Structures are given as structure tokens and as C-alpha cells.
Amino acid sequence: MLEQSLYCVCIFSQAQDDVIVDVYERLPVPFGLVRFGVAPDHPEVKNVINTFTQTAQHERCFFHGNVNVGVDVTVKELKKAYHAVVLSYGAEANRCMGVPGEDLAGVFSARDFVGWYNGLPSNQKLNPDLNCETVVILGQGNVALDVARILLSPLDMLKKTDITQHALEALTASRVRRVLIVGRRGPLQIAGTIKEVREMINLPDTTADMLPADFKGISETLKGRNVAVQNQDAKAVPTGQMEDLECGMVISSIGYKSLPIDPCVPFEHRGAIIPNDMGRVLDTAGLYCSGWVKRGPTGVIATTMNDSFDTARVLLKDMKEGTLDLSVNKPGAQEITALLQERGNTHRNTQKKKNADCTLFSRKKNTLLTNSQKFKTF
Amino acid sequence: MAVSALSSRLLLLGLNAARVTCAHLGRPGCVFSNARGVSSGRALRTEERVTVRFIDRDGKRISVNTITGVSLLNIVVDQNLDFEGFGACEGTLACSTCHLIFEEKIYNKLLNETTVADEEMDMLDLAYGLTDTSRLGCQVCVTKDLDGMVVRVPEAVSDARKTSDKDSAS
Q1: In chain B, what are the domains?
Q2: What is the residue range of the signal peptide feature (chain A) (predicted)?
Q3: What are phi and psi of A129, to 5 degrees?
Q4: Touching check for B13 and chain A: CB below 8 Å?
Q5: CB neighbour list of residue B73: distance below 8 Å, 6 or more residues apart
Q6: Local structure of A118: helix, strand or coil
């Protein structure tokens, strides 16, 4: 995601006078989940885009959109052209439930649903049928709460946000009146954070219905210290009790998943991350990773930000200590751009205009670093 | 220099955002201006100037001279203090990156004046290195009786300078 790379860029530009950073992104616009994943009624969370824009406009940072690494250009080719490659492409897939019926019409991933109301091009035609009274959301993280809130928010509130027009129209005609947020464990284990829970409970024109049985014994547990530490490893155990819930739509919000990007990049399928040691990809010199593809797809912006700072510092350390071989000049974007043009790729480069419209940028997929001579892509 | 440009920009945006936040929580005594350079020239009677001492993540001490009524976030931005990632949401209570640690007596003094709002507590809960005397910098405005206080910028995550031994988090 762009934010991860841009935080890396921030560190680099401060530390080294001659480091050039090229950012490669699959989509034509940047910023990743900050643009397409943050709920439209949380615009303040997107303020960090201002920081990113500043960083992206650094004279030694260049943005290349519409470049699908792994398809348009390989990681091997990038490694040849740059001294170091940092992979921060996030988690684009969903975790599957692995239960029958997952592929039925009316069952959506939260990622697609969020992409639909946030304007992600690939989700534009999702057309979720909101002509039902009850929606079940599986999962209890912030994404699940976002989806529930958007489904039930008063229209007057939604109209003031930058939610997409087609979603607003669909929600205006929506018959959804009841949203069940279902999870395997108890209230102390939900992945959502307090702010979002509070917001859901206080949502105008709605009532929050919680099952008293779920809260049995909680107040006694809360009297002890270190409650969070004690309870986060609690595992769900089947009780054998079954319940049928009638609903018109199921939204699965059980987490995202990273995918392997290129055969030459090691990938640990079990945890769906790139195996690494503090951001250095294992068994591969010159390759680094940051963010969700490094640690797994959890955490807020601050978590990912700090993680990116860590990767950047590790990379700087390797540069300083000679672990990274900087003795050979590398061509950087010059070589990659030539390759892309040969292959007919219509990638977009940013121009360093004073009033660059950040909506022209592309979502971020990878970051690449080079110590080559400066190459302006105008 | 990129960092200064970044910080200046944050100042401009942070001021606008911070004014919104403080208004929302009804915090008294916070005065914000839409103009740049709020701490560099307007209404400067001597008794309005205070000193705030920051300790950054490397233990370096930075003393700044500012005026009362400005939030600690705005001071950091205004003075171009180079704390990585500080104030990402620009004072709108949507992150915890302006997390600061206070001396106990100062923390208690602040608490006596106003209780910490739920909205601030909710975000503080997510902050790294949270302590019993932690607050968000965007919610604390300097007053005359906080003159000379010391605030510490907490550690972010695991220190990447550590070697990958058993103790470092991965």
C-alpha cells in the first residue's frame, strides 16, 4: 500500500542525499486502502494522505502507476535494475471461510463490499441486492463494523460523505433494517477497536442489541489487570448448538490475505506473508518487505506506518554497513520504463507540478529503491 | 529540505484540523488561528510565553519557546520538530501518533482541569508504549502553569537497531 512505501520514502529522504525512490503501483491512483478501504464517514482518518502527498512530491521520489509487478515486469527485472526492492503490496485477497455455500449469490467478501461503496474500479459492478431485511456479517473487526455502520447509517449522514453515487442510491432504496455481526469468540476477543464499537452503539436511529449470555462473567474478568493479554489467545470451542439465521445477504469479514507476487519471491502460504527477518526477505539479498505482506493484515495506519519505518531503517543500516552492494551503478526506472514501453504498457508517471492533483495518483503496490542517477519521468 | 516542507504543510493543515477537534470537545482555553506562524508573532505579551521541553525517541532534549493556548501537536509541527510520523491525522482524534508521556505531576494537573474525553481514551488505547501518564498531544494545550514541563516522545515499535536475538520483536 502506498502509505507503507511513502513512510519508507520519508526515512530515506531524510537520511541519504542520493537515494532515489521509484514507487510502482498497479492501479492508476495511489494511496491504497487509505483511499479505498477507509469508510467514507471517517474522512479524518484519510488526513494522512496529506503527509503522503508531501512525501510523494519529494524531488527524489517518483511514482509509476498502472504497473502490475509480476505481470508487466518481474521482480527479477526490478532487482536487476535497482540496488534494493521493497515489497509493500498489502493483502488483496480474502480469507475464505471454507464452508458450503460460500460461492452463492448474495455472499460477498467485506473487501468487495467496501470497495463497492468506496469506488474501487473492480467492484463497481458488484450490485449487492439490498432488497432484504436482514444482513449477516461474519467477523467482528473494524471492517465488519464499518460495513454494518454504512448499511444502517441514516441517509442524511451518508449524503455528507464521499461515498460513491451508486452505493448511495442503492442504500437509499435499501430495505435492510437488521444487521447481525457474528463472531466465534466473546466480547473481550473482538478484533474491532473501542472507537468503532462506540460509534456503532451510538449510531442515530438504531439500537444495539447484545445478547446478555455473551457477557456472562465479563465484569468479574475485567476486575483483573492485563485483561487483554490474558484473553486474546482464548480459542473458540464448538458447543454443538446450532442456530439458523434467516437473512438475504452474508458478508464475510474474516480478514484479508496476501498473495505471492512473483515466483522468485519466497512466500509462506500458511501465514500468507513473505518470510522475513525484520523486513529483510529471507534467502534473498536486496529484497525487503513492509506492512501487511510482512506482518500479516492487521493493525491500524499507525501500526503499518511504524512497521514501514522499521523496514526503512533496516535497509538504511544495510546500505551503511555494506550488506547491500552499492558499488555497481544501477539504471533504475530508465531500464524499467524501456521494458514497459516495449511491452506496450501504458504506465503513468507523475509530474512534479506544484498543484499536482493527488487524485491522479495510483494506488500503491510496490516500492523500489535505487541509488542510480536521478531519472526524471516527465 | 523535505522534512521542513512536510512539517510546514502539516502546520497549515494541523491548525485547521485541531481547531475543529478542540471545538468539538469544548475544551476551554485553546485558541487557534487560521494563519500560519501562530507562534511567531501575534499578541505576544511576555506572560503568554512558555517553555516546553521535549525528549525525543533518541533521548535528545529539545527546548521550545511558545505561547499559551497552542496544542502540543501544533507546537511540534510549528517548530519543525522531527518526530517521525507524528500527528498523522492532523489532530482529528483518528490516530495515536501524537502520543506523549508526561511527568506525573503535570498529568495530574491536566486531569484536575478537565477529564480525558472518551474519544481521546479510545485512541490512546491503541498507542504504543502507553503509560499511566500518557496523553495525545493534539488534546493538550499549554497554559501558563505548565511552563517548563517535560514531555517525552514514546518509542514507536521495536527498535530496528537491535540485532535479531530472542528479545527483539519480529
Answers
A1: 49-152 (3.10.20.30)
A2: none
A3: -85, 105
A4: yes
A5: B14, B18, B86, B87, B91, B98, B136, B137, B138
A6: helix
Q: How far apart are CA A176 and CA B49, in angstroms?
A: 56
Taking the CA of residue A187 as centre, how many other CA atoms within 13 Å lie in the half-sphere pointing to its CB?
14
Task: Give residue-wise pLDDT tens across range A324-341.
Answer: 988 999 999 999 999 999
DSSP lists the bridge partners of residue B112 as: none
- Quick one: which of B76, B33, B70 has its CA closest to B146? B70
What pTM was estimated for this model as a whole? 0.80
A95-214+244-252 to CATH, choices 3.30.450.40, 3.50.50.60, 3.40.309.10, 1.10.1020.10: 3.50.50.60
Chain A residues lying within 8 Å of B168, measured CB to CB: 278
Q: What is the ipTM of this complex?
A: 0.78
Partner-chain contact B164 A277, CB within 8 Å: yes
Cell numbers of B10, please?
A: 502539516
Task: Round to whole Å and give the CA distance between B112 and B135.
Answer: 14
- Contact with chain A for residue B9, Cβ under 8 A: yes
B91 in Cβ contact with B14 (< 8 Å): yes
Q: Do B157 and A306 touch (CB under 8 A)?
A: yes
A2-92+258-371 and A95-214+244-252 agree in CATH topology: no
In sequence order, the 6+-apart residues with CB closer than 8 A to the CB of A217 are: none
pLDDT in tens, A254-281: 999 999 999 999 999 999 999 999 999 9
Topology (CATH level 3) of domain A2-92+258-371: Rossmann fold (3.40.50)
Domain boundaries, chain A: 2-92+258-371, 95-214+244-252
CA angle, A367 then A298 then A178, to 5°? 125
